[in-house]
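Deliverable D5.2: sample structural annotation.
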Amino acid sequence: MVLTAEYYSWFLLTSVAIGEVISDPKALDCGAPQGSVAGPLLFTLFSAQLQDIIASHCLQSVVYSDDTQICFVFRRKDRLSAVQKIETCVAGVRSWCQKNGLVLNDGKTELVYFLSKLTKTESKPEAKIGNSVIQPCQQS
């Protein structure tokens, strides 16, 4: 699909309708109007870089809408270095967010360990994400 200047300029304009009254069109500096047909596609294209950043740290990501999970498997003896790897990755994600006008919500960040029932109960290290210390979830 080729975007013509006419289509492109139309796409960057939005109006608000309340009842029968429609506002004058305003140019969008970024984003897409909420509820627009193109919004989900544009967000997917926009956030694809985020998955590349996570993969560059040799980690995997699971993405659903605007929720991203960073996952990887490690051995018990490597748990401290695993947490450091995640902290470094999240710092890269935070940098990308700041460059792109987004905010990473530390308060919604969770650290979950999935262990075998055969595994002895051992310490699960916390992670430092931004200025917050994230404690591991008690149940997973």
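Annotation notes: The radius of gyration is 21 Å. The beta strands are 13-14, 17-18, 21-22, 26-27, 60-64, 67-71, 127-129, 132-134.
The annotation will be released with the project's public dataset once the embargo ends.
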